[in-house]
Amino acid sequence: MRRFLPDLFTIGLLLCVLLASLFPAHGAFAHGFGIATDCAIALLFFLHGARLSRETVIAGLLHWRLHLLILAITFGVFPLLGLAIGLIPDSLLPHPLYLGILYLCVLPSTVQSSIAFTSIAGGNIPAAICSASASNILGMFITPLLVGLLFSLGQTAGGFSLDSLQTILLQLLVPFIAGQLLQPWVGGWIRARKKLLMPVDRGSILMVVYLAFSHAVIEGVWHQFSLENLAMIVLLDILLLLCVLGLTLIGSRALGFNRADQITILFCGSKKSLVSGVPMANAIFSSAMIGAVVLPIMLFHQIQLMACAWIAARYAARPAAE
């Protein structure tokens, strides 16, 4: 049963939302906290770049058919499903929450959990490492461009601009490249101290969530949406995940991938990254919108962890010959 209970990170997210609801950051404190949050996010992506070895990148890049399929699902199938959700009337799905769903659909895949579940299920681990990492690197460019394209198609005010793209590149991509350049010297030391550096990984996201919901609370986010609206978001997140899980499984089998590759495609293609999504939302959207935009991502995060934990356990318990 513990697989279906929230992990400590999810509990931390909920506590940040509660703290922001009771004691939102504002004034000089919010400004200083925002600067500290930007620094923490830059450090996070520096560590991501420093952890990824060159050998892993080269080994994974050779499996180009698998990577193309995962990228097509992540940045193609997901956004199309997001546009289809836009057909739901505003009376059932308020427009700010729909923006959150649509933004969720253009995010890159996760890294850590995709690799972990692929490993548990007996999938192609080198390919998973490369595919998930490539998704996050390309997502720094593709996600803001898709926001600009799809949000304008849907006649939505997403707040995207070239300044947003510049902020993302400076805050996320530049530290990542710096980490890759220094990887031969610091990569081994960082990988050997994974538990010591985990607070940076989790803590930076908790800081962004607290700051985002502080802005949202000040703008009156909890007065805008009802419990029925939140229930609708949970239902849509579940249906979205089930749909993509089914498509990845059927598509990988139809294209003739072996069992290990099917597992990798299933887990890397169906996930969406909270770690990348929240910082990019902070750069793309206005403070008045960011709380509603981040909410569907936070819910989807826990749903995908519970579902994929169960699926990975099923694969691990089943003989490879089945």
Describe the structure.
The protein is an all-alpha fold and 322 residues long. It has one domain (7-317): Up-down Bundle (Na+/H+ antiporter like fold), CATH 1.20.1530. It is 81% helix and 0% strand. The chain is built from 14 helices and no strands. The chain has helices at 8-22, 27-51, 54-61, 64-85, 95-105, 112-121, 125-153, 162-192, 194-218, 221-224, 227-254, 259-269, 274-284, 287-317. Helix 5 (95-105) packs across helix 14 (287-317) and helix 6 (112-121) runs parallel beside helix 14 (287-317). The longest helix has 31 residues, at 162-192. The radius of gyration is 19 Å and the shape is globular. The two termini are 26 Å apart.
Distance between the termini: 26 Å
The secondary-structure element order is HHHHHHHHHHHHHH
How many distinct helices? Answer: 14
Catalogue the unreliable spans: 154-159
CATH topology: Na+/H+ antiporter like fold
Helix vs. strand class: mainly alpha
Coarse shape: globular
Proportion of β residues? under 5%
**Integer count of domains:** 1
Work out the number of β strands: 0
The radius of gyration over CA amounts to 19 Å
Looking at the overall shape, the CATH architecture is Up-down Bundle
Average residue pLDDT? 82
Helix content: over 70%
Largest sheet: none
Provide the CATH top-level class. Mainly Alpha
